[in-house]
Amino acid sequence: MHSTLIIYSSTDGHTETICKRISNSLDNKNETKITSLDDALKLDLSIFNKIIIGASIRYGKHSKKLYKFIKLNKDVLDQKNSIFFSVNVVARKLEKNTPETNPYIKKFLKISNWRPKKIGVFAGRVDYPNYSFFDKYVIKLIMFLTNGPTDTSQSYEFTDWSKVDQFAKELV
Fold it and tell me: pLDDT at residue 27 above 90?
């Protein structure tokens, strides 16, 4: 039996990378299962002691599948040691990098009506070279409007890995 389930809802893979980093920091690595949100729909959540969900933002929203998953599993999540974190580029800004100040966390909690036992937020990554033409230029516009980087020939990682490590230590 796995004691910890880590679920990722990731658009470009960065949230999955953060989930793997958290998993590597846990004491019970051998008892931890990491899975995508799609695959988590097929699992019996009741067999896990701790459930961690990490979700990315794209165009100002968490995925609809995430909200559906929460709704379908809210009773089990409420009974477990459940943890949630959001990965978004807005969290690169000091005034928006805590669960209390991040607009996407506030919106998520309101829409999902779920109250995880612990909540985190991490700045994400802008990976222009790997985006589709459409995504590249929409995200460039968003970055321009929010004083972010706009050189589409580069990737920009804003994740504070020491913050991720500290979050993981607090989960033990």
Answer: no
